[in-house]
From TrEMBL:
<dbReference type="InterPro" id="IPR003439">
    <property type="entry name" value="ABC_transporter-like_ATP-bd"/>
</dbReference>
<keyword id="KW-0547">Nucleotide-binding</keyword>
<keyword id="KW-1003">Cell membrane</keyword>
<dbReference type="InterPro" id="IPR003593">
    <property type="entry name" value="AAA+_ATPase"/>
</dbReference>
<keyword id="KW-0067">ATP-binding</keyword>
<dbReference type="InterPro" id="IPR027417">
    <property type="entry name" value="P-loop_NTPase"/>
</dbReference>
<dbReference type="GO" id="GO:0005524">
    <property type="term" value="F:ATP binding"/>
</dbReference>
<dbReference type="InterPro" id="IPR017871">
    <property type="entry name" value="ABC_transporter-like_CS"/>
</dbReference>
<keyword id="KW-0472">Membrane</keyword>
<dbReference type="GO" id="GO:0016887">
    <property type="term" value="F:ATP hydrolysis activity"/>
</dbReference>
<feature type="domain" description="ABC transporter">
    <location>
        <begin position="6"/>
        <end position="233"/>
    </location>
</feature>
<keyword id="KW-0813">Transport</keyword>
<protein>
    <submittedName>
        <fullName>Copper ABC transporter ATP-binding protein NosF</fullName>
    </submittedName>
</protein>
<dbReference type="Pfam" id="PF00005">
    <property type="entry name" value="ABC_tran"/>
</dbReference>
<comment type="similarity">
    <text>Belongs to the ABC transporter superfamily.</text>
</comment>
Length: 309
């Protein structure tokens, strides 16, 4: 049976008094895209560095493609990994192409691959310009280009869309999904929860060095049972009639603002609310249901309250 791309087995990492990662176990399937989220200081970067073999674990084991990160065979495995650190530092005096050729040499990838990769991230026209004159978004694209060199099997991206404009973010995820379709396994961190919540296969929430929850957005919603918000836009002057009808249902939180009623209700109450609204259809102009976002779930799982620094 082929080895899993990543197996983290009860791993802890301590820096002096700080327990950065605390008993984490995580298995990642081939071709999976994982979103790793957590408050500042939750341990995301430390977990990345452990999985990349850049730092040793205090205890536990990390295997990448079945190979222990502290074993002799890991050097060969590392060549098949692409990594974009949170801050991509490069040589400002070199052109984009020169920087990429340098990475190609380090990764033992033919320099001839650089043209295609630069074009893929939208930097073909800027290839001969010095990086000093690049915008933040262009630098980030260059960082992404070095990740793509050599078509890695396993890709780690730490806050990869920092500095990208909406079009850049769209292009970035489009490339990422193409790479994933070709079989790459991807682990990505982001503080922009709305951005990754629908784009990854599985979310892993880290809180103070531990995995607080993991699953798809739908699974996390089912585990946490947070209220949804139903916003009912009414025809003029119908607010109190609808409000009074809904107030007959126990346990709802209702707010009324002019011709809009907002109902906060648990999943099991939604149908009862909609039944009442159906009976008052002549008063209703529009209905929108807002499910809890990843941000709501994240806050529910400790979110910012777990912040250490
Ligand atoms: N080299 C180090 N020496 C000492 N403490 C460290 C070191 N690296 C990280 N830490 C501490 O370990 C904890 C986890 O840090 P880490 O950078 O992994 O968190 P993070 O989730 O990536 O945070 P952020 O979202 O702010 O980047 C923090 O308390 C941090 O201060």
């Amino acid at each position: 049976m082929a080895s899993l791309p990543i197996e983290v087995k009860n791993v802890s990492k301590r820096y002096g008094d700080v327990q950065a990662v605390d008993g984490v176990s995580l298995s990642v399937e081939r071709g999976e895209m994982i979103g790793l989220i957590g408050h500042n200081g939750a341990g995301k970067s430390t977990l990345f560095k452990l999985m990349l073999g850049l730092i040793p674990a205090t205890s536990g084991a990390v295997l990448v493609s079945g190979v222990p990160i502290d074993g002799r065979d890991f050097r060969a495995v590392r060549r098949r990994i692409g990594y974009l650190p949170e801050t991509f530092v490069t040589y400002d005096n070199l052109t984009g192409m020169e920087v990429l050729r340098l990475f190609a040499d380090l990764k033992q990838v033919p320099r001839s691959a650089c043209d295609d990769v630069l074009a893929r991230v939208g930097l073909a026209d800027a290839a001969k310009r010095r990086v000093r004159g690049y915008s933040k978004g262009m630098r980030q694209r260059l960082g992404f280009a070095q990740v793509l060199l050599g078509s890695p099997d396993l890709i780690f991206l730490d806050e990869p869309t920092n500095g990208l404009d909406p079009e850049g973010i769209h292009d970035f995820y489009q490339i990422l999904h193409e790479v994933k379709a070709q079989g790459a396994t991807i682990i990505i961190t982001s503080h922009i929860l709305a951005e990754i919540q629908e784009r990854v296969d599985r979310l892993v929430i880290l809180n103070s060095g531990r995995i607080a929850a993991q699953g798809t957005l739908a699974q996390l919603r089912a585990q946490m049972v947070l209220p949804s918000e139903i916003r009912i836009q009414l025809r003029s002057g119908q607010g109190s009639r609808v409000h009074d009808a809904l107030a007959s249902l126990a346990g709802l939180e209702l707010k009324i603002e002019q011709d809009c009623v907002r109902v906060s209700c648990l999943p099991g109450q939604k149908v009862a609310v909609l039944n009442i609204l159906a009976a008052l259809a002549d008063t209703v102009h529009d209905i929108a249901i807002h499910e809890p976002s990843l941000e709501d779930l994240f806050l529910g799982y400790g979110g910012l309250h777990g912040r250490k620094n």
